[in-house]
């Protein structure tokens, strides 16, 4: 797939303005029922090395099909600014997606969807840019608060709420005895539909299997640069 050009703001102030404008285009409606081929996205970076982005094409019936990796030189990266991570990682993700042999039907991203201070985490940003359904699965809480304590059993979920009480997604325990994940829709997916989709993904450990495999590939690619 050949994505449209990605805007490159020169300063954080420009990125903030663009982020707010793009957040207005996010659609929190849609189902992933029937979706079969997704791209799982994960990135890794170490100071002094290029940023490594991985796009893993995954068939929900057959498993992993293809892995594409892109490197973005450190000097080309957007500055690290909390809340603006998508401007740093998205260009490399788009290169990796362009290298896949076929376009995915949806994106599963290691990061936030709308559970973000301005409603545009990396999953939302990529979803809007590519006009693809997208879901964010984050390992850490960035924004919001759980509605209630999360039960310990596998599959437990409680809503993640913004400070004003708006639902942003779910705090989700993928396996008993592991730390929770933070699931939020990115674009063209409803809140409950995003959680339903993540729940039906194969999950052997903490992360859904497509994201776990993408994470391992990103780690291997980064280590190969040492």
What do these coordinates show?
The radius of gyration is 16 Å and the shape is globular. The chain is α+β, with helices and mostly antiparallel strands. The protein has helices at 12-23, 85-98, 122-130, 191-199, 209-223; strands spanning 37-44, 51-59, 63-72, 106-110, 134-138, 145-146, 157-161, 167-172, 181-187. A 9-stranded mixed β-sheet has the order 3-2-1-4-5-9-8-7-6, with helices on both faces.
Give me a quick take on this structure.
The chain is built from five helices and nine strands; from the N terminus they run αβββαβαβββββαα. The protein has 226 residues and is α+β, with helices and mostly antiparallel strands.
* Helix fraction by DSSP (H/I, runs of at least 4): 25-40%
Structural class based on helices, strands and sheet pairing = alpha+beta
Beta content: 25-35%
Count of DSSP-assigned helices: 5
The biggest beta sheet is recorded as:
9 strands, mixed
Strand order of the largest sheet: 3-2-1-4-5-9-8-7-6
Distance between the termini: 30 Å
**Strand tally:** 9
Average per-residue pLDDT, rounded, comes to 93
Contiguous uncertain segments of 5+ residues: none
Q: What is the string of SSEs from the N terminus onward?
A: HEEEHEHEEEEEHH
The outline comes out as globular
Q: From the alpha-carbon coordinates, what is the Rg to the nearest angstrom?
A: 16 Å
């Amino acid at each position: 797939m050949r994505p449209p050009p990605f805007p490159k703001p020169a300063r954080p102030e420009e990125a903030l303005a663009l982020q707010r404008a793009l957040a207005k285009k996010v659609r929190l409606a849609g189902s992933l029922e029937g979706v079969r081929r997704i791209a799982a996205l994960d990135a890794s970076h170490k100071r002094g090395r290029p940023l490594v982005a991985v796009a893993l094409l995954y068939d929900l019936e057959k498993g992993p099909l293809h892995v594409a990796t892109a490197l973005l030189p450190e000097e080309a990266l957007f500055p690290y600014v909390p809340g603006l991570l998508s401007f740093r990682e998205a260009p490399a993700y788009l290169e990796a997606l362009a290298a896949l042999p076929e376009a995915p039907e949806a994106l599963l991203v290691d990061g936030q969807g709308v559970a973000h201070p301005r409603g545009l985490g990396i999953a939302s940003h990529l979803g809007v840019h590519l006009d693809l359904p997208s879901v964010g699965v984050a390992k850490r809480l960035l924004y919001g608060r759980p509605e209630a304590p999360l039960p310990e059993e596998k599959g437990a979920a409680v809503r993640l709420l913004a400070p004003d009480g708006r639902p942003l997604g779910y705090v989700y325990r993928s396996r008993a005895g592991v730390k929770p994940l933070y699931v939020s829709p990115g674009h063209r997916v409803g809140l409950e539909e995003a959680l339903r989709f993540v729940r039906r993904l194969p999950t052997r450990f903490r992360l859904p299997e497509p994201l776990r495999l993408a994470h391992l590939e990103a780690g291997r690619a980064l280590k190969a640069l040492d």
